[in-house]
Specification:
- The radius of gyration is 21 Å and the shape is globular.
- The chain has helices at 6-38, 42-66, 69-79, 82-110, 121-136, 138-153, 158-180, 190-214, 222-227, 237-271, 273-310, 313-340, 344-349, 353-385, 390-414, 418-444.
- Helices cover 84% and strands 0% of the residues.
- It is an all-alpha fold and 445 residues long.
- The protein starts with 5 loop residues before the first helix and ends with a helix.
């Protein structure tokens, strides 16, 4: 059966590998952030976990809105409509910037209430400046996402990858300076990691804009040719609605999943700081394998979207099925490796026997649930290429918030399963989402 999809596997990987490398580079910086902060102790690591749990909600909503651009550009590209691709980009970029500014205001409004989350007061005190600085990174991040969506929608995935890797290098250097006070910089601790994030995202935004002007594809300024068509003073309510019609449900899908994990982090904090730190370590480590699936998912979105524009029904189905099969194969191998290294990995982050023991237990559950996580993200990516958005949104809402998260709470605090119960609930939610979204794609194609 796999040999039937060999051509599709290659086509997916050709698009996916730069995205995967870029995402892995970004995740590697997050891992380095946690390794560096881990040297400051469990309380500092828990503070980063708390700050990220709140900030990532805004980040994911913004990224979801921006991801509407990829299928729109891919469909226009498949139809040969370059003007439509340019018009979609312009409207998406405006929406991205507005959302970034709104996020800063909302985060600032939420900060005074963080002491009511039931977390350790010392953790909250460290998390507040971290969150405040991170909020400003939304502006360069959302501008970057706009240019990235245009580039990837046109099947040019290398330029964003290089920009991400450049930003990652800036992030690591800034962390080294500002967390510990190296090279004459002030030692800002946890807050220094947030400044590293801000500087890194600003750098990758500026480099990608530079690439849009000078990056050549096929011997000409392919990417820039889409920008020079843009009239900065001409907007359409219909195009704004078109972008939001895809972007808002996509952001809700991502918000439901990330919100479930953020709620899980808060529940871990209610159990104790060691449990919260172990949760952060496990999420941070397994996110590296998940980024491979994200790359394949984006490839599925672009290839299914191109097939939709061409009117190629068989091409849509093959591109989506190939992506789902690829993530199953990869995540099965990753599950074996993670289970085998479940004590070794957390020991890289922190020298705390209790945290390492908890993380090792969580890695066993993560080894299983990441297969489901990979399948659901690939299926959702294929559905996004079909511009089928609201059904996956309803599925993720039901799976995470109606089934998975309530089970996490009940098993952890009513059945006294503790931290393991929280993660078993996450496993149930992800598995249900994977099954239902795959069934939806198969039905539509």
């Amino acid at each position: 059966m796999l040999s039937i999809y060999r051509t599709d596997f290659r086509a997916n990987l050709r698009l996916a590998w730069p995205i995967i490398l870029g995402q892995l580079g970004q995740i590697s910086v997050n891992i380095i952030d946690n390794l560096m902060v881990g040297d400051l102790g469990a309380e500092a690591l828990a503070a980063v976990s708390l700050g990220i749990s709140i900030f990532v909600i805004f980040l994911v909503v913004g990224m979801g809105i921006s991801m509407a651009l990829q299928p729109l550009v891919a469909e226009s590209d498949g139809m040969g409509d370059s003007q439509g691709a340019s018009f979609s980009f312009k409207h998406s970029l405006v929406i991205n910037i507005i959302f970034a500014l709104l996020s800063i205001l909302l985060i600032e409004s939420f900060i005074p209430f963080m002491d009511r989350l039931g977390q350790d007061p010392g953790v909250v005190d460290l998390a507040i400046p971290y969150l405040r600085v991170c909020s400003w990174s939304m502006v360069p991040m959302m501008i970057f996402q706009g240019f990235r969506g245009l580039s990837e929608g046109l099947s040019e995935t290398t330029a964003p990858m290089v920009a991400i890797l450049f930003g990652n290098v800036l992030n690591v250097l800034a962390n080294y300076m500002l967390i510990y006070g190296n090279w004459g910089a002030p030692a800002l601790g946890v807050e220094g990691a947030a400044f590293g994030t801000l500087f890194g995202r600003t750098g990758m935004m500026l480099l990608l804009i530079f690439f849009m002007r000078y990056w050549k594809t096929g011997g000409h300024n392919h990417l820039w040719s889409y920008l020079v068509r843009i009239d900065p003073f001409k907007f359409s309510k219909w195009f704004f609605k078109k972008v939001l019609r895809l972007g808002v449900p996509t952001s809700l899908q991502m918000l439901f999943e990330v919100g479930a994990f953020a709620a899980a982090a808060l529940m871990m904090g209610m159990i104790g700081a060691p449990e919260q730190a172990a949760h952060q370590i496990t999420i941070n480590a397994v996110s590296a394998t998940f980024m491979v699936c994200v790359g394949i998912s984006v490839a599925a979105t672009v290839r299914v979207g191109n097939a939709l524009g061409r009117g190629d029904g068989l091409g849509k189905r093959r591109a989506g099925i190939a992506a789902i099969l690829q993530v199953v194969l990869f995540m099965t191998l990753a599950a074996v490796l993670i289970g085998w290294a479940r004590y070794f990995i957390p020991a890289l982050y922190i020298d705390d026997a209790r945290v390492i023991e908890i993380a090792a237990d969580l890695f066993l559950i993560a080894a299983i649930f990441q297969i489901s996580d990979g399948v659901q993200v690939a299926a959702i990516g294929a559905l996004r290429g079909l511009q089928d958005i609201w059904w996956p949104t309803a599925i993720t809402f039901f799976s995470y918030l109606c089934i998975g998260l309530p089970f996490s709470w009940y098993s952890a605090f009513e059945l006294d399963w503790g931290y393991q119960g929280i993660w078993i609930g996450l496993l149930i939610g992800l598995s249900l989402s994977a099954i239902l979204n795959t069934m939806r794609f198969m039905r539509l194609t």
